[in-house]
Design goal:
Length: 103
């Protein structure tokens, strides 16, 4: 076992879990807050980048980087999720006004 290095597998598993976490997060965030919550993911992404730059551990630094860029990707997905809702692919939040309803 001394010859085996598990860091790559741990990074892969945690990357899979982080991406899996962000998928329902996009759906819930758009449902409750719409696209106006994009800046939260920007702050999370910037925080992840800063953490990744200052953490010495390759494993933890890599995970912070994955988290950061998953947060940045979520900004794009929030806006695309609104389009999917308007197409009827996902349920609308009855307590919110959507772009088509503001006219």
């Amino acid at each position: 076992m001394e010859l085996l290095h598990f860091d790559g597998l741990v990074i892969g598993i945690l990357t899979f879990l982080i991406i899996g976490l962000f998928h329902p997060l996009v759906i819930k965030a758009e449902y409750y807050w719409g696209t106006k919550c994009w800046w939260i993911f920007l702050i999370l992404g910037i925080g992840g980048v800063i953490a990744s730059l200052f953490i010495e551990s390759i494993l933890i630094s890599a995970i912070c980087g994955v988290f950061a860029f998953s947060s940045f990707w979520t900004i794009k997905e929030i806006f695309e999720q609104e389009e999917r809702v308007l197409k009827g692919w996902f349920p609308k939040n009855p307590k919110r006004k959507y772009p088509e309803q503001k006219r």
